[in-house]
Amino acid sequence: MTNAILTGTNHVTEAEVFNVPAVPFTKTFHPVHHGDVIRAIQEAIDVMGMEIVKSEYVLAQDGQRMFGVYDLSQGTNELSWSIGIRNSMNKSMSLGVTAGTRVFVCDNLCFSGEFLAFRRHTSGLDTDELAFLAYRSMRKMIPLLKGFQAWHENLKNYPLTEIDSKILLVEIMTNSVIPPSKFSEFNGLYANVYDDTLWGFHESASHIHKSSNLLSLPQKNKVLNKIIDNYIYSLDNTGSSPLGDFYQQRALISR
């Protein structure tokens, strides 16, 4: 296994994920192998009557951390449901899944950012329990996917003024959603590729994320989505441009 596939920025095959060496159990720590998690999630997706149409994986920390993305057969004509799957074998995080969407025409991927963590790596976790937990998590994930899809599509109903788009751009750069070095790229996408709505703004940021680390994508999306939610909240409560209220709510983003 080369260092290149352990950075979290380069995709690996499913076979490479399965080939990561297992970590021995202890009395209190029962690290579930990435391969067992993948099998359980895939079986749960199948039981729920859905199909995986695309899959991606990255590894980090010498293969101890894994993040996967499954695009599912459900969705709309414009986007598919996606789920993000995380697992670690070094106590750095619990098993978890998060809701997402991928836009067909531009291949932009975004997540809610909130993980449904369904088990810590403690003793007593066997393959049967893992299968049950994966099935239960996927049942919970379906309404989350529906809700995130609705949220994503609803962004089209919010046109942006030039001033407000600039404020939002400053917000996402100061909160490290996109680096300042990507300003020109973002500006070109928003001005020439996507429309001047919150959907267009969100897609411009999501487009830039296509080349970023998949492991960091859910957190970046979480911050981006909170910034947009704060903007919508200010609009809905003032009925006008949120230039004042928006900055007063900046403290909420990091909570």
Brief summary:
This protein is α+β, with helices and mostly antiparallel strands and 255 residues long. It has helices at residues 14-18, 34-47, 127-154, 162-174, 183-192, 198-209, 217-238, 243-248, and strands at residues 52-60, 65-75, 79-88, 95-103, 109-119. A five-stranded antiparallel beta sheet has the order 1-2-3-4-5.
Low-confidence stretches: 1-8, 250-255
- Residues in helix, %: 40-55%
Number of helices: 8
User: Major beta sheet, specifics?
Assistant: 5 strands, antiparallel
* Oligomeric state of the chains present here: single chain
Shape estimate: elongated
Mean pLDDT: 85
- Along the chain, the helix and strand elements come as HHEEEEEHHHHHH
List keywords for this structure.
255 residues; alpha+beta; 5-stranded antiparallel β-sheet; 43% helix; elongated; disordered N terminus; disordered C terminus
Structure description:
With 255 residues, this protein is an alpha+beta fold. It folds into two domains: 3-146, no CATH class; 158-252, no CATH class. 43% of the residues lie in helices and 20% in strands. It is built from eight helices and five strands. It has helices at 14-18, 34-47, 127-154, 162-174, 183-192, 198-209, 217-238, 243-248, and strands at 52-60, 65-75, 79-88, 95-103, 109-119. Strands 1-2-3-4-5 form a five-stranded antiparallel beta sheet. α2 crosses α3 (127-154) and α6 (198-209) packs antiparallel against α7 (217-238). The protein is elongated, with a radius of gyration of 19 Å. Residues 1-8 and 250-255 have low confidence and may be disordered.
